[in-house]
Structures are given as C-alpha cells and as structure tokens.
User: Fold this.
Amino acid sequence: MKQLRLGRVRRLACLGASWVLFAFWAPAANSAPACELEKIQLIVADERDAADVCLGAAKALAFFAGHGLNLHETVKLEVMKKLPKGISSSAAGVYLAESNQIYMLSYGAFRKFGNWFNTPISREVYQSLAAHELAHAITNAHFRFTQPSVHAREYLAYVGLFATMAPALRERILKALPGQTYEDDSRLSLMVYLMDPMFFGAQSYRHYLNLKQDQRDAYISAVLAGRTLTD
Assistant:
C-alpha cells in the first residue's frame, strides 16, 4: 500500500511541485448546499462529503480559536475526484497559501488509498483530513515573518488534526505510529518530516500534548514568530 502524503503549503522545488498550473483549474459546476461556517466557501458535489468536510473544518476552527487564532479571510475549499495537475498522486489534499485555497479529494477517491496513518480510511478519518487542511489556512495568516519552514507549518496543522480527532480514533492511530515523547523539539525536523510525514505528525501531537496547558499558547506563538522549528 503506498504511503499517503498531505499536500504541501508552499513551493518545494525538490519535490517537483508546480503550483502555477492551479490558476487554470475551473471549479465544479454543481455544488452541494454551502457549508454554514463563516469565511469558508465550500465547493462540493456530494452532500455526505460536504457534511464531513464542514464538521472537520468546524472542529479545526474551534480548536485554533481556543489559541486565539481565527481565519482572517474567506478560504475556498473545493472537493474533487482528482486533484489538479501539479499535485502529487500520493496527496489527498493541499492548501495553497498564495491563493488561500484548499483542494481535497472526495471521500470516494480518498478511500481508494486504503489506509492513512496506518489506519483504515473511514468517514472520521476523512473529517480529520479536512481539519488538517483548514488548520493550514487558519495558521498561515498568523505567521509573523516571511517564509516559515515547512515543518513549522506542518507541526501546527498536524496538532490541529490530532487534537480534533475522536479520542478512540486518535488512540488507535498513535498506537499504529509508536514513538517516544521528547521535550526537545529539535527532533521535529524537516528531515523527519520528509522521511515520514505521518510519523512526524504523531510526534508533533505528542510534543504538544506533553506541554503543560499554560505552555501551549506560548509554544504556538513561538512557532508563529519564528523562534522555533526554523530551517
């Protein structure tokens, strides 16, 4: 079974991304009822997919609002059977910071990958995919410096993904991706992310969870200010 990777936030020449092609992608003609979340424009044909994406997005919005982070501008989230040209065939979704857009696979297309985080894909897992991509959109506007590192962006998005999962699903995934908890975030490097994004995600959440409640806001602020998880 091939390893499923999430989309990247910015251009990465070494991974062969070609974001310029996205400008020519046209949205689906028919869409399900709009997602009733402020600052989210959802384009999706399937009502069940719309409900799952909205739920995952709502959980991400609530989690980051608890850390004082909210969407600044409307983000367009389009669900499709195949991602636009230029996106890796192993990707399930991508957030494009340049245009503030999210593209996600439909549940039917996503399910063909079989597993995600070494766990069978389900509707709950699909909701977490939506939460991850929305986490990118939320946090992107709050970076207080230019060109944040890839692993800084992914740390925040994976923390949002795991924090909004149903507890039973989260426990099952963490067991499927065992790892030690370290207070030192130097182990959450770009190299670790590139070698195994799923493991990096699990380790990011373990690091966040290991922080005391009153330390979490401070750590997220440090990431957004470029004081940690830098290149």
Q: What stands out?
A: The chain is about 45% helix and 10% strand. Residues 8-31 have pLDDT under 50 and may be disordered. The beta strands are 40-43, 75-80, 93-96, 101-105, 115-116, 119-120. The radius of gyration is 16 Å.
